[in-house]
């Protein structure tokens, strides 16, 4: 039951944050007078996305929140950092005999990167600016690549220092690529490669590694939602309805569930020799 308690607690906190952040931002939007006040159109937010690229949801330049549906759907990424943070903090005080629970700092790192990704995604759709898009790409690419490197860490049992070394170099490369790249097409290609690469890598390790006990339900939930998210992203340009709704917001929701599931999959992994020493109930 201890697993279930922390699972439920993290879920409750995610819901509370969803409501607080949503009510705060849309409360600001409700009282915002865009005609007499300039917020996003100056400073680092002055430059529009490359080629004035915009999603189907038509940005409203008089609103504080330029793309409301895309912003609301971005809140579904909240569990992607709340769960790693809560699990990592609790693992600092009580080890529950899963592989990742022995390395709570890795969960905290994933939580920080996922938080940055959520901020970047929300900022991208709130401001509809190139700076917001760059922040979104840095967060997303860092998170997807982080899961690939984490899979190597767990399944190949590479040293923690090696994990951090590769991850730091990777994040620096991501920052350079996101900041210097001005092609929307190339950005979408990089995102697709990382998402598909992460899923393929994790599934291959899952199927081939025989020294680790896996909770298969989480990986297949993650893969299912991940594939569906990619499909909704691909058809987004063709599902635009009156410049008010398209599948990009659905892509956020599906992708968020996939990311959340992959973390739970990683966290429940156990070495076979340690299974006999644990009587805990799994999620």
Low-confidence stretches: 274-283
Shape, please?
A: globular
The H/E string reads: HHHHHHHEHHEH
Estimate nothing, just give the exact number of structural domains: 1
The separation of the N and C termini measures 8 Å
Tell me the quaternary state.
single chain
Quick structural overview:
The protein has 283 residues and is mainly alpha-helical.
Question: Could you describe the 3D structure shown?
Answer:
By secondary structure, the chain is mostly helical. The chain starts with a helix and ends in an 8-residue tail after the last helix. The protein contains ten helices and two strands. 41% of the residues are buried. α1 packs across α3 (79-93) and α2 (68-74) packs antiparallel against α4. The longest helix has 30 residues, at 2-31. It has a two-stranded antiparallel sheet. It has helices at 2-31, 68-74, 79-93, 104-127, 130-155, 160-180, 184-208, 216-234, 248-268, 272-275, and strands at residues 212-213, 270-271. It has one domain (2-275).
Structural features:
two-stranded antiparallel ribbon; 2 strands; mainly alpha; single chain; globular; 283 residues; disordered C terminus
Layout of strands and helices, then pairs:
Blueprint: H1 2-31, H2 68-74, H3 79-93, H4 104-127, H5 130-155, H6 160-180, H7 184-208, E1 212-213, H8 216-234, H9 248-268, E2 270-271, H10 272-275
Antiparallel strand pairs: 1-2
């Amino acid at each position: 039951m201890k697993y279930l308690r922390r699972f439920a607690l993290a879920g409750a906190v995610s819901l509370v944050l969803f409501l607080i952040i949503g009510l705060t931002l849309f409360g600001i939007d409700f009282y915002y007078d865009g005609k007499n006040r300039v917020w996003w159109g100056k400073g680092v937010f002055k430059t529009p996305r490359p080629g004035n690229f915009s999603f189907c949801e038509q940005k409203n330049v008089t609103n504080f929140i330029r793309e409301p549906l895309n912003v609301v759907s971005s809140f579904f990424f909240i569990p992607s950092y709340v769960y790693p943070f809560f699990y990592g903090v609790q693992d600092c005080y009580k080890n529950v005999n899963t592989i990742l629970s022995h390395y709570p700092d890795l969960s905290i790192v994933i939580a920080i990167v996922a938080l940055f990704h959520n901020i970047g995604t929300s900022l991208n759709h709130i401001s509809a600016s190139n700076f917001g898009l760059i922040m979104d790409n840095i967060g997303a690419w860092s998170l997807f690549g982080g899961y690939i490197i984490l899979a190597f860490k767990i399944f190949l049992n590479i040293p923690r220092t090696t994990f951090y070394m590769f991850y730091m170099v990777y994040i620096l490369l991501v920052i350079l690529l996101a900041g210097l790249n001005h092609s929307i097409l190339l950005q979408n290609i990089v995102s697709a490669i990382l998402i598909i690469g992460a899923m393929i890598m994790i599934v291959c390790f899952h199927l081939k590694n025989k020294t680790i006990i896996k909770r298969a339900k989480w990986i297949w939930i993650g893969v299912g939602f991940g594939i569906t998210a990619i499909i909704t992203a691909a058809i987004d340009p063709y599902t635009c309805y009156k410049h008010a709704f398209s599948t990009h917001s659905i892509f956020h929701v599906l992708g968020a569930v996939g990311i959340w599931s992959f973390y739970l999959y990683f966290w429940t992994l156990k070495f076979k020799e340690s299974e006999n020493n644990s009587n805990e109930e799994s999620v």
